[in-house]
Amino acid sequence: MNPSHTPEHPVPRGLFLCDLVIVEAQTGKVSLVNTLDRFRCPVFPSVPKPFVVYAFLTDGIGDVDLTIEIEGLARLEQVYSYTTRVRFPDRVAATHFKFTVTDCSFPRPGLYQVVLYANRNPIAQTRIEVIS
């Protein structure tokens, strides 16, 4: 990679929430275990319950800051944010981005939006319903 080349954000092939992501070492096949679109929480604010955010990313190049943000849609309140830097060596290489969220607490029942940003640009989103 040319060091003077400006990093470019990747293109996602979806954004998923699940309990576990398994990437088979020999084939590179990915299994998403227990995909989620709803959390049941007995009390609010909720006790943090670990889950995985997964995206299959292509066409990125260079060092890219990937940020996961979760916000409540009713009040547009951010409840979680985490940023990590990922290196995309070239456009041909695909990257399995998986991050385990361990410390997100939902303040109340409702709809929440999970957004993946690349260098502060939104590139993917999904929703989750939190119920009591």
Which parts are unreliable, with pLDDT below 50 for 5 consecutive residues or more?
A: none
- Total number of strands: 9
Written as H for each helix and E for each strand, in order along the chain, the element string is EEEEEEEEE
Q: How large is the share of residues in beta strands?
A: over 45%
Which CATH architecture is right? Sandwich
Integer tally of domains = 1
**CATH fold field value:** Immunoglobulin-like
Separation of the first and last Cα atoms: 50 Å
Taking the sheet with the most strands, its summary is: 5 strands, mixed
Shape: globular
Rounded to an integer in angstroms, the radius of gyration calculated over CA atoms is 16 Å
Widest β-sheet, arrangement of strands: 3-9-8-5-6
What level of helicity do the residues show? under 10%
CATH level 1 class label: Mainly Beta
Mean pLDDT: 93
